[in-house]
Amino acid sequence: MREKFVNHGTFVIEKSYPASREQVYEAMADAEAKARWFTKPEVFEFRVGGREFSSGEAPDGGLFTFDATYQEIVPLERIVYTYVMDFNGVRFSVSITTIELADADGGTKLTFTEQGTFFDGLDAVENREHGSRELLELLGNSLAQSGESVVAEDDADLAPGELEFFHTRLYDSPREEVYRAWAEPELLAQWWGPNGFTSTFREFDFRVGGFWRFTFHGPDGKDYPNENKFIEIESEKRIVLEHQGAPEFRLTVIFTDNAGRTRVVFRQQFKDEQIFEQVKSYCPDSNEQNLDRLQAVLDGQRV
Fold first, then answer.
1. Shared-domain flag, residues 17 and 81
2. In what order do the strands lie in the sheet with 198-204?
3. What confidence category does residue 107 fall into, taking pLDDT thresholds of 50, 70 and 90?
4. Residues of 206-218 as b/e, b for ≥16 C-beta within 10 angstroms?
5. What is the pTM of this model?
6. DSSP-assigned letters across all residues of 201-234
7. N or C: fewer beta carbons within 10 Å in the chain?
8. 97: domain CATH number?
């Protein structure tokens, strides 16, 4: 019988990339981008509580599996996840990983910290650190090969602020199509709102100074009237609106072309700290669900 024992280890890797934080973050937050340098995920749910799962064959046979759960996500700043590694169904490690991003010398500094528990001599912290360094080299190669490793011109649009929920998505659709899904009420009504909600638009005057009035119909059977005022509209580039009434906030949506795909930055900004704290328990998840529903509509699905 194999001896049962456990070892613990921690390592830290620091890397610098000639790419913006937004680009490095995207390489970890988007399934297709991540598959260019990491094992292609079979499950990829990039949200707090979401799962990432991948598997691969060992060179001499057998099946490795990687099963992670995202514990904390601070867009463009920090990703924390826990994960287990199995080989042919036998667990050989449990780890917690923290990835931190910071601006540095015209690019991005990435700090990768892993704390691992390794079972029965099946793996060791030295091996894990070596493998992690190789993966981060592949990440750098992927960023370079994309031809997009330049610092964004307007970092103010890409830096999360205080009292704000910040989200970013990369859609496999051209910018005009993604923008149209926001600008045309027939499309917007199909996806606007979190899971389980539908909406009835009463007014949609898509111009600066115009109003967007609608009612959410919740899964609990209740109706929730909403009113927004459009503050800024720049066709296919930016939409800014202010939510009238409680909770008051400003929503800024930024559309950028990314080699035929579209990057959407979604910024929900509050003035009142007390209100921000009150909605923090549900707003971020609701926003992520909203952006998921937009993806479904772009894919031609009904939501």
1. yes
2. 164-171, 261-269, 249-258, 238-244, 223-234, 211-217, 198-204
3. confident
4. eeeeebbbbebbe
5. 0.55
6. EEEE--STT-EEEEEEE-TTS-EEEEEEEEEEEE
7. N
8. 3.30.530.20
* Confidence band of 300 (pLDDT split at 50, 70, 90): confident
| Two structure tokens written together for 89 | 């169904």
| 110 neighbors 14 (Cβ within 8 angstroms) | yes
Amino acid in the structure at residue 225: P
Within 8 A by CB and 6+ apart from 150, the residues are 19, 20
Contact 188, 198 (CB under 8 A): no
Which pair of tokens denotes residue 283? 């707003």
Q: Does residue 179 belong to any structural domain of this protein?
A: yes
User: Which of the 8 DSSP states describes residue 243?
Assistant: E
Task: Tell me the per-residue pLDDT of 31-50, one tens digit each, with 9 for 90 and over.
Answer: 889 999 999 999 999 999 99
Residue that is last in its domain, among 119, 145, 171 = 145
Rounded to an integer, what distance in angstroms lies between the CA atom of residue 226 and that of residue 245?
A: 8
Q: How far apart are CA 21 and CA 70, in angstroms?
A: 19
Q: How confident is the model at residue 148 (pLDDT cuts 50, 70, 90)?
A: very low
The tokens for 58 are 């060992």
**What is the model's pLDDT at position 283?**
92
Question: How many whole angstroms separate alpha carbon 257 and alpha carbon 173?
Answer: 10
Q: Distance between CA 283 and CA 303 in Å, rounded?
A: 20
